[in-house]
From TrEMBL:
GO cellular component: endoplasmic reticulum membrane
Main location: endoplasmic reticulum
Chemical reaction(s) catalysed: 3-O-[beta-D-GalNAc-(1->3)-beta-D-GlcNAc-(1->4)-alpha-D-Man]-L-Thr-[protein] + ATP = 3-O-[beta-D-GalNAc-(1->3)-beta-D-GlcNAc-(1->4)-(O-6-P-alpha-D-Man)]-Thr-[protein] + ADP + H(+)
Transmembrane regions: none
Record protein name field: Protein O-mannose kinase
Protein localization: Endoplasmic reticulum membrane
Gene transcribed to yield this protein: POMK
Function: Protein O-mannose kinase that specifically mediates phosphorylation at the 6-position of an O-mannose of the trisaccharide (N-acetylgalactosamine (GalNAc)-beta-1,3-N-acetylglucosamine (GlcNAc)-beta-1,4-mannose) to generate phosphorylated O-mannosyl trisaccharide (N-acetylgalactosamine-beta-1,3-N-acetylglucosamine-beta-1,4-(phosphate-6-)mannose). Phosphorylated O-mannosyl trisaccharide is a carbohydrate structure present in alpha-dystroglycan (DAG1), which is required for binding laminin G-like domain-containing extracellular proteins with high affinity.
Region (Disordered), start-end ranges: 1-33
Keyword terms, alphabetized: ATP-binding, Endoplasmic reticulum, Kinase, Membrane, Nucleotide-binding, Signal-anchor, Transferase, Transmembrane, Transmembrane helix
Domain Protein kinase: 65-335
A biological process term (GO) from this entry: protein O-linked glycosylation
Source species, domain of life: Eukaryota
Annotated EC: 2.7.1.183
Length: 335
């Protein structure tokens, strides 16, 4: 990457000038508001429909929604590509009756957290353990690299677009940590694959959180901390405070495992962002600029890690800086 007379960040020089002028954050950082933000609580708008419709009831789901095929199955639910009034939709149904409490918790979160960060809720039937949401054909973030390898998306496989996805992800973590319900911890995150499976990639290449089954509430002032499940967690991906602290000589016992707070999500941000950035030209320059904030995220003491707000603000400042430098012809190399 060295030895060029122009910016080392390819593609960014073609960024429209309005994205890189002035002190404000660049426009691509913001997700466009999804339709749900324009409808009152309990209503949605989908596709070409102009009016807000109330969330579909049990009766409407049973009579108006047609299942097409199963497109995914996890521990808690099965997901079916379905059709409603010529719109493709996603129908989730409970897969394991022993996990109905998790399913209902996910539904409660889905209803309460509707925003531009969360997949759009179209309806639900609590007694039949069914949830209807907007369908996103690109699927979960697990398929990101495969999508960007397809000819139709190769033009999006740039450091700029990938970094914007990382900013979307951190913005969602910030939203969960500052949600209308309080500070929520993303517990379904014990390895990278598990994290990626909780989020969807939209057709306009943004990130939405889709799986809200494991979102416990932290309330430090009331002394309320969390534990992600009742089994021993292992590996470097989870935060140090999520590991059994008493050594191999003491058998794991859930009652003895100390609880923790939302800073477990901060520990995981560098690993998830590293996945987003991939190995395209320019991504190493982005990593170089993220080094300090990522080192802070990996502090062993959770209290020393930055808040999601601080990470999000730093990411946005770095994007603005890189776009400005890349848009200026003859910019000296950053490394």
């Amino acid at each position: 990457m060295q030895g060029r007379g122009r910016s080392t960040l390819p593609g960014a020089a073609r960024t429209p000038a309005h994205l890189v002028t002035g002190p404000e954050e660049p426009e691509p950082v913001r997700q466009p508001d999804v339709d749900s933000s324009l409808c009152p609580f309990g209503y949605f708008r989908l596709g070409p429909l102009k009016n807000c419709s109330p969330w579909l009831s049990c009766e409407a789901i049973n009579t108006e929604v047609r299942k097409l095929k199963c497109v995914g199955e996890g521990a808690v639910k099965k997901v079916f590509l379905s059709e409603w009034k010529e719109n493709k939709v996603s129908l989730s149904q409970l897969a394991n009756s022993e996990l109905k409490d998790d399913f209902l918790h996910g539904l409660k979160m889905m209803k309460s957290l509707q925003s531009k960060y969360v997949v759009k809720l179209l309806g639900y039937c609590e007694k039949q353990f069914t949830i209807l949401t907007q369908y996103h054909p690109l699927g979960s973030l697990k398929s990101l690299n495969e999508m960007l390898d397809l000819p139709r998306y190769k033009g999006l496989n740039t450091w700029h677009r990938r970094f914007m996805l990382a900013i979307d992800y951190v913005s969602i973590i910030h939203y969960l940590h500052n949600s209308p319900l309080g500070t929520l911890v993303m517990c379904d995150s014990n390895n990278l694959d598990k994290v990626l499976s909780q989020y969807l990639l939209t057709s306009d290449f943004h990130v939405l959180v889709n799986d809200l089954d494991a979102l416990p509430l932290v309330n430090k002032s009331a002394g309320r901390l969390v534990k992600c499940g009742h089994r021993e967690l292992q590996g470097e991906f989870v935060a140090p405070e999520q590991l059994w602290p008493y050594g191999e000589e003491v058998p794991f016992e859930d009652d003895l495992m100390p609880p923790y707070d939302e800073k477990t999500d901060i520990w995981k941000i560098p690993d998830v962002s590293n996945f987003f950035l991939g190995h395209v030209e320019g991504s190493d320059i982005v990593r170089f600029h993220l080094f300090d904030i990522h080192a802070a995220c990996k502090k062993k003491n959770p209290a020393e890690r930055p808040s999601a707000q601080m990470v999000m603000d730093t990411y946005r400042k770095i994007l603005t800086l890189l776009l400005r430098e890349a848009a200026m012809p003859g910019t000296r190399e950053m490394l």
